């Protein structure tokens, strides 16, 4: 069970959620799904680079300077600087996408993800909110908003994302990384911010 929980924590790592979110948006059957493959490829590369690779590349440096004691960042205080830098890279990604002329649903999703991350920095100063459930909650919120905004049936996709959210929350609890309130609050935090942004 511990190995399974660790695998789940890696698969649904918060730094992978923006890329997963973009993938899900492309598969949702809206007008965005008909974007040319080359345009999608550029968006994927931009999002993955700025929300995953660049933030991850900083962790060894932060570890070397003693800012974080481990890559798990078990204390709330350890997470503040990494989450701040992650927010900075998210902002870079958002600006790059704007320069490329990407707006609409993708732009709203990226902006909402940025807001969720930066606001999590403030919360992290006082409380160890779950970044994992903020991430997966944001993806679930985006899909729910697409269903309402475009009137399309995404029941199966929403069910799968809520199931993945539950599994991720359970994994984090099993590993002792969070208290129940921290994973519930994280999910609601990510879900509501992204849902409102993509819907409006």
UniProtKB/TrEMBL annotation:
The keyword Zinc-finger does not apply. It comes from Geofilum rubicundum JCM 15548. This is PAP2 family protein. The lineage of its organism: Bacteria, Pseudomonadati, Bacteroidota, Bacteroidia, Marinilabiliales. Keywords: Membrane, Transmembrane, Transmembrane helix. It comes from the Bacteria. The chain crosses the membrane at residues 7-30, 42-68, 80-97, 103-127, 134-150, 156-175, 182-199. The keyword Transmembrane helix applies. Signal peptide: none annotated.
